[in-house]
Amino acid sequence: MEEWSIRTDLALESALIAEEKHGSKLDGIMSKEEQRENTLVTTVTINEEGERITGKRPGLYITVESEDLRGSDSSRHAAISRVLAEEIKVFIESAGLSRDASCLIAGLGNDHVTPDSLGPRVTDRLIVTNHLFKLHPEHVQEGYRPVSTISPGVMGMTGIETGDILLGLIEREKPDFLIVVDALASRSIERLNATIQMTDSGIQPGAGIGNRRKEISRQTAGIPVIAIGIPTVIDAATVTRDAVELVMKHLEEKSGHDDENWKQAFLGNIGLLDEDEKRQLISDVLTPAGLNMIVTPKEADLFIHGAAAVIASALNEALHDRPPEETRSFFAG
């Protein structure tokens, strides 16, 4: 039996899993929550001890959560984008970067696969200025910084590691810092398409679905790296387990029973398994049949369109010290 590992790129989820296993708060992980503009902001700090426990690199991880990210309310999208912009500024300032520091933004992912197209969709909406600083600096208004973008595709399309493409570009163009945007994986249906994660620890593309590519971080790039992503996919074993739990909860409410004896009578010994054991069992059943797939909600097209606008608007606001009406151009109507 192959041991099933929880597929998630979210440090928040990895921290919660570690705390569930150990039954208490852990010294290597610090977290705090706050509400801003009806949006939950969670800050998780992981040190070397936390890395050993969670498998996530040491660093600062900030998640912005709101179910409104899934919807089409432009006013809520604008509010989430404002919160996100404030947090991006925190990362820029903590890295000691000046207001005129040059930035390269990489939109990672496959533009031909909807749930993986978040990165390229974001770069399509960014205010790009690097060429203006080089060719016509006298026409650049005060407050803008040099920003360039690239969507390097995926290795299956280019034959080249994404990390190698970016390292070569960094060596040639010499930006002061790098921002990478990518689609992520989650272990929770509730956080799917409803959470934005930012971190200064870099990113390992494909890690959440078990397809690890070359790491992109300050250690490999030689400059500060800020990674931004939204979980757009989840594995079938997790969806199945959550569905079983929802059915059990529904039946408990209808019957008025919530004791362990009732669960065992209804599901046999399966009803007494803990979460990890249920996931393992479901994975053991699905994997040999080729059914433990990576899945995404059917509304992926609409979601990616709105989510890309939220991230792009936040980046434009955070990177350029200009009036909001010049950087938030995606939420009208």
UniProtKB/TrEMBL annotation:
Residues 1-9 form a propeptide. InterPro entries: Pept_HybD-like_dom_sf, Peptidase_A25. Autoproteolytically processed. The inactive tetrameric zymogen termed p46 autoprocesses to a smaller form termed p41, which is active only during spore germination. It is an enzyme of class 3 (hydrolase). Keywords: Hydrolase, Protease, Zymogen. GO terms for biological process: proteolysis; spore germination. It comes from the Bacteria. GO terms for molecular function: metalloendopeptidase activity. It holds the Pfam family Peptidase_A25. The keyword Oxidoreductase does not apply. Its EC number is 3.4.24.78. It catalyses: Endopeptidase action with P4 Glu or Asp, P1 preferably Glu > Asp, P1' hydrophobic and P2' Ala. SUPFAM superfamilies: HybD-like. Homotetramer. Belongs to the peptidase A25 family. Initiates the rapid degradation of small, acid-soluble proteins during spore germination. This is Germination protease. The gene is gpr.
